[in-house]
Amino acid sequence: MTRTLKAAVFGTGSWGTAFGMVLADAGCDVTLWGRRAELADAVNSTHTNPDYLPGVELPRNVRATTDAAEAADAADFTVLAVPSQTLRAGLAAWTPLLAPDTVLVSLMKGVELGSAMRMSEVVEDVTKAPAERIAVVTGPNLAREIAARQPAASVVACRDESVAVRLQTACHTPYFRPYTNTDVVGCELGGAVKNVIGLAVGIADGMGLGDNTKGSLITRGLAETTRLGLAMGADPLTFAGLAGLGDLVATCSSPLSRNHTFGTNLGKGMTLEETIAVTRQTAEGVKSCESVLDLARRHGVDMPITETVVGIVHEGTPPLVALKELMSRSAKPERR
Ligand SMILES: NC(=O)C1=CN([C@@H]2O[C@H](COP(=O)(O)OP(=O)(O)OC[C@H]3O[C@@H](n4cnc5c(N)ncnc54)[C@H](O)[C@@H]3O)[C@@H](O)[C@H]2O)C=CC1
Ligand SMILES: O=C(CO)COP(=O)(O)O
């Protein structure tokens, strides 16, 4: 008889909880770690996460704790699902507690401010685990839809394909179809930059612009993501897949996307402060647009949409002015 796999999920927000549910539906025993005892108690007593996934019944093999050592104990997979900019500090505290040889799995779609590191790089830097034991899950996976068990595909990326296959098996359910990929750089960039493009599309939507604008931003957004990926050694085909186009389309079309909604509020004329005040959950692109631009500059890559988003979000450029600037750039060939 095969042993039941154990997974620890650090982060009881919407995606940590929903992915915990996927792992549990696939047969793993799952322990969520969160900071607040009331939420852990609610998960254990009511089998729901009332703060982040209200109304969703969690499988019985999902439990929660505030004790990081208890969560980490003997975990085959240690899943990290906290806001990207908090990962380094959190993981430093959890590292001594991690099970030896656990596979570290990042669900996060951000780039660290200052270091411009992708999340798997932060994981490697903090834990000193080899890259072959660090995996990424990414793709068009809006947490609420996954929690409703609506069908979706995803990507499980790891430099070591056999590790990716193990994780693929551990999270494969009738409604969640993971594909493996060994291009970790491309998969992570796809996830992080789509949040920035999602902000741009949201801003355009908020300004009342239509589907031609949206189609243009999505396509040119993908072009600048691919340019950055190529400069960083990613496989350009990754961006035509679930981690690139797939996630971009989901994020840029959905009112469930926090980045898209954040952009829409800005496009409607709300200030950054007002928008932050009405945003309860993590919209990674708001901070990561700066670190993505930092990466682009380090690699000498032109990312005009990302630059425009940074201008609107962090430099107070009015959306209409930023849009005019974007449209008045010099004409060029589509592929360059
Ligand atoms: N929600 C979604 O549909 C998806 C989210 N993601 C990514 O997953 C990551 C996590 O996002 P969500 O779960 O959606 O965010 P969320 O905002 O729903 O939850 C974040 C969780 O992290 C906790 N947290 C905040 N600051 C913390 C800190 N300093 N230390 C420890 N815990 C802290 C919060 O209490 C909360 O439990 C993000 O990088 C996001 O881009 C990826 C795919 C889908
Ligand atoms: O990454 C996501 C869907 O794949 C979730 O997008 P938001 O973080 O914008 O909600």
Automatic annotation (TrEMBL):
Pathway: Membrane lipid metabolism; glycerophospholipid metabolism. One of its GO terms (cellular component) is cytosol. NAD(+) binds at residues 11-16, 143, 258. It is found in: Cytoplasm. Its EC number is 1.1.1.94. It catalyses: sn-glycerol 3-phosphate + NAD(+) = dihydroxyacetone phosphate + NADH + H(+); sn-glycerol 3-phosphate + NADP(+) = dihydroxyacetone phosphate + NADPH + H(+). GO terms for biological process: carbohydrate metabolic process; glycerol-3-phosphate biosynthetic process; glycerol-3-phosphate catabolic process; glycerophospholipid metabolic process; phospholipid biosynthetic process. InterPro entries: 6-PGluconate_DH-like_C_sf (IPR008927), 6PGD_dom2 (IPR013328), G3P_DH_NAD-dep (IPR006168), G3P_DH_NAD-dep_C (IPR006109), G3P_DH_NAD-dep_N (IPR011128), NAD(P)-bd_dom_sf (IPR036291). NADPH binds at residues 14-15, 35-36, 52, 109, 143, 258, 284. Residues 183-322 form the Glycerol-3-phosphate dehydrogenase NAD-dependent C-terminal domain. Coiled coil: none annotated. The active site is at residue 194. Its main location: cytoplasm. One of its GO terms (molecular function) is NAD binding. It holds the Pfam family NAD_Gly3P_dh_C. Keywords: Cytoplasm, Lipid biosynthesis, Lipid metabolism, NAD, NADP, Nucleotide-binding, Oxidoreductase, Phospholipid biosynthesis, Phospholipid metabolism. PANTHER family: GLYCEROL-3-PHOSPHATE DEHYDROGENASE, GLYCEROL-3-PHOSPHATE DEHYDROGENASE [NAD(+)] 2, CHLOROPLASTIC. NCBIfam families: PRK00094.1-2, PRK00094.1-4. Belongs to the NAD-dependent glycerol-3-phosphate dehydrogenase family. This is Glycerol-3-phosphate dehydrogenase [NAD(P)+].
